[in-house]
């Protein structure tokens, strides 16, 4: 059992701390006393509400409470840790570069307060080289002659499934250039995870691996989104193409869903950050620049599909939006595509009726969008808002509750439009919708509704392919 301190009680820090506490003694430190108090109340069974929504997290915190200490006091946080994990935010600045100010202030606090030998690992997503920067800051600010090593241990959990992702990760990537420290990190993780999931490497490779993973996943999505546009144009169905290529094990079936674009706290930020980092290093990654551009274009493409149904005039139009979180089962609205769509609709005169399965997502929307007050209404029930004043239903995320809508309850809509931003309705349902005179639009499946113009394609081939 090791003593661990986690810097940052956010979407990464709290689940990671609760997970480590299965076999280690963990202190979660955050200067935000409100967050620490919120977690403490949950751990002590005085409340059931955390500041972040994460499946099974409350249970895990309570299960391991005897190994968890919560504090906003830096002296207590750095009393005697053997490992420190920095899991503070690295939000993008206006140039798309990761802002390292929170990482650096964590390093300064460590330097001023560290009293015993320790390994410091960065869990935050950072530009390669940051561990060396942290090392320098600590070395410069250290008050005593304490031995320490700095490395990298990027996090790959996904919000909504963080607890399960931490319990059964595909791999644990960590890097440290000090071989003795690297061995100690390996031992730390062997208490927690399968040995074959451990993936030790150099510090720089570990830091780059995180950016590379997110850039690759985002690129898969953008690749499918650009194919989806081609599908709409020629009459193919992106879902069928997805199935066809996804069964090829060399390609894999995950992250191939065409949709209105990816969002969230990681993909947009990390793709932008690695693209910018590569440009600054004079090795531009044009493939990732395209990934980012396609993502913006796809959202615009989907939004245009809505607006064109009203000849560009959304005044006094009412839309229902199911799912405001950037994905199902999260209250995190950072770079959420449904939020972007909602704001565009409201900017153009529409009123948006918003439902999400996560109450915290609605609360966050209200808090983060004060200037839109009066232009939207929030609901805790999925069908409550349907009436003869509704002009369209937009599916914003992939929650299973949205996959099989109760069509009878949608019948009252003034304009029977269903816009499937996540491509989650199956062909059978789409056919049912069209039979009931609903118009259905998505990304890459226009042919399911519109059929296929074979003669147009034949003429195209005759015209362009007969040298
Ligand atoms: N959210 C995700 O799904 C996810 C997944 C993998 C990696 N990451 C990366 O992990 C990092 C953390 O992300 P997050 O979503 O948990 O952020 P978050 O904003 O939810 O939490 C960050 C926390 O750090 C705290 N903090 C700021 N300065 C601090 C300091 N000096 N000492 C201690 N705590 C401090 C803040 O108060 C906040 O509670 C980011 O770099 C992010 O890119 C996030």
Q: Your description of this structure?
A:
With 467 residues, the protein is α/β, with parallel strands linked by helices. The protein has two domains: 3-201, Rossmann fold (3-Layer(aba) Sandwich), CATH 3.40.50; 213-450, NAD(P)-binding Rossmann-like Domain (Rossmann fold, 3-Layer(aba) Sandwich), CATH 3.40.50.720. The chain is 43% helix and 13% strand. It is built from 18 helices and 14 strands. The protein has helices at residues 13-20, 33-43, 57-63, 74-77, 101-113, 130-141, 162-167, 179-190, 203-234, 238-246, 267-280, 286-307, 337-347, 359-368, 407-410, 427-435, 446-450, 454-464; strands at 3-7, 25-29, 68-71, 83-86, 118-122, 148-152, 172-175, 198-201, 318-322, 351-355, 376-379, 392-395, 417-420, 439-441. The strands form three sheets. Strands 3-2-1-4-5-6 form a six-stranded parallel sheet, sandwiched between helices. Strand 5 (118-122), helix 6 and strand 6 form a beta-alpha-beta unit. Helix 5 runs parallel beside helix 6 and helix 9 (203-234) packs across helix 11. It is globular. It starts with a strand and ends with a helix. Nicotinamide-adenine-dinucleotide binds at residues 7-13, 29-32, 35, 87-90, 102, 105-106, 109, 123-125, 155, 157, 159, 265-266.
Brief write-up:
The chain has 467 residues and is of the alpha/beta class.
């Amino acid at each position: 059992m090791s003593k661990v301190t986690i810097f940052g009680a956010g979407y990464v820090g709290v689940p990671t701390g609760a997970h480590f506490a299965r076999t280690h003694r963990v202190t979660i430190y955050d200067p935000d006393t409100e967050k620490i108090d919120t977690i403490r109340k949950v751990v002590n069974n005085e409340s059931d509400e955390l500041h972040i929504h994460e499946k099974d997290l409350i249970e895990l915190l309570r299960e391991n409470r005897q190994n968890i200490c919560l504090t906003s006091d830096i002296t207590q946080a750095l009393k005697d840790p053997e490992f420190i994990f920095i899991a503070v935010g690295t939000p993008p600045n206006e140039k798309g570069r990761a802002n390292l100010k929170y990482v650096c202030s964590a390093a300064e606090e460590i330097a001023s307060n560290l009293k015993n030998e320790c390994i410091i690992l960065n869990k935050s997503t950072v530009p390669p080289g940051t561990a060396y920067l942290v090392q320098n800051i600590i070395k410069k600010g250290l008050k005593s002659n304490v031995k320490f090593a700095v490395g990298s241990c990027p996090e790959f959990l996904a919000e909504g499934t963080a607890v399960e992702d931490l319990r059964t990760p595909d791999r644990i990537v960590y890097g440290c250039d000090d071989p003795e420290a690297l061995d100690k990190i390996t031992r730390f993780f062997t208490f927690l995870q399968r040995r074959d999931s451990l993936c030790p490497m150099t510090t720089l490779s570990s830091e780059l691996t995180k950016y590379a993973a997110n850039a690759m996943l985002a690129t898969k999505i953008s690749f499918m989104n650009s194919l989806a546009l081609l599908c709409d144009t020629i009459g193919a169905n992106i879902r069928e193409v997805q199935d066809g290529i996804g069964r090829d094990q060399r390609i894999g079936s995950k992250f191939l869903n065409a949709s209105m674009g990816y969002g969230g706290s990681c993909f947009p930020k990390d793709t932008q950050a690695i693209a910018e980092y590569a440009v600054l290093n004079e090795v531009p990654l044009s493939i990732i620049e395209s990934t980012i551009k396609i993502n913006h274009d796809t959202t615009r493409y989907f939004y245009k599909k809505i607006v064109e149904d009203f000849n560009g005039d959304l005044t006094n139009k009412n839309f229902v939006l199911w799912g405001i979180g950037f994905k199902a089962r999260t209250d995190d609205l950072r770079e959420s595509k449904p939020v972007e769509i909602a704001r565009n609709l409201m900017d153009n005169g529409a009123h948006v009726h918003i439902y999400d399965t996560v109450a915290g997502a609605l609360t966050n929307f209200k808090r983060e969008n004060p200037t839109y007050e009066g232009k939207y209404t929030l609901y805790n029930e999925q069908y409550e808002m349907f009436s003869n004043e509704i002009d369209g239903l937009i599916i914003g995320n992939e929650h299973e509750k949205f996959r099989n809508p109760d069509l009878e309850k949608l019948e009252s809509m003034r304009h029977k439009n269903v816009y499937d931003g996540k491509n989650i309705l199956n062909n059978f349902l789409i056919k049912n919708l069209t039979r009931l005179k609903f118009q259905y639009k998505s990304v890459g499946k226009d042919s399911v509704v519109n059929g296929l113009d074979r003669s147009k394609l034949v003429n195209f081939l005759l015209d362009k392919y007969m040298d």
